[in-house]
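Ops channel
N.P.: pipeline sanity check, posting one input/output pair.
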């Protein structure tokens, strides 16, 4: 994975996190709990290991 690809994915993740933060109050409490349980660790990260990003890039291509 090139540095440019890694940056592209990190920017996409940060944009998704920002969008989720903007819509957080519109999401039901049950859904917020599920999001915290599934993605809480990811939402709190500011950078990611390359192997995690490679997985996300592969998952996006499916």
């Amino acid at each position: 994975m090139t540095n440019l690809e890694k940056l592209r994915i990190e920017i996409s993740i940060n944009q998704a996190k920002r969008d989720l933060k903007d819509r957080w109050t519109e999401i039901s409490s049950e859904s917020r709990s599920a999001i915290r349980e599934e993605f809480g660790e990811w939402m709190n990260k500011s950078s990611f290991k390359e192997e995690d990003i490679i997985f996300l890039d592969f998952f996006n291509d499916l």
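N.P.: looks fine end to end. The chain is about 80% helix and 0% strand.
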